[in-house]
Amino acid sequence: xxxxxxxxxxxxxxxxxxxxxxxxxxxxxxxxxxxxxxxxxxxxxxxxxxxxxxxxxxxxxxxxxxxxxxxxxxxxxxxxxxxxxxxxxxxxxxxxxxxxxxxxxxxxxxxxxxxxxxxxxxxxxxxxxxxxxxxxxxxxxxxxx
Length: 145
What we know:
This protein has 145 residues and is α+β, with helices and mostly antiparallel strands.
């Protein structure tokens, strides 16, 4: 596994839920993330409340510039979702650093698997250790109508 780019100077990662800028996260996801377009603020608030939340913050201003959410039982399974980097700071390695921090945060739990779904960022996640499912035909989904 290749080590992803380190977090650039001037940024910090935190899993403190009190630091999450819920309004900003909702705006990002509901207006710019293909998987969450139109998501209501109330639904996003519930998602934040029921998950582990990670943010990347600009050190000097404290402004949140990236977000990731993990749904987990902290024993056997986790789902990494809602990974988003503010467009103005993309290309600096913040997304890779954020997902690496999430991976490292989850490691002590001894989870059997951490899943995610992506349309276009397979290469980013592969650098951090994710790989395609060995048997995708075994997985099923119950999709809301």
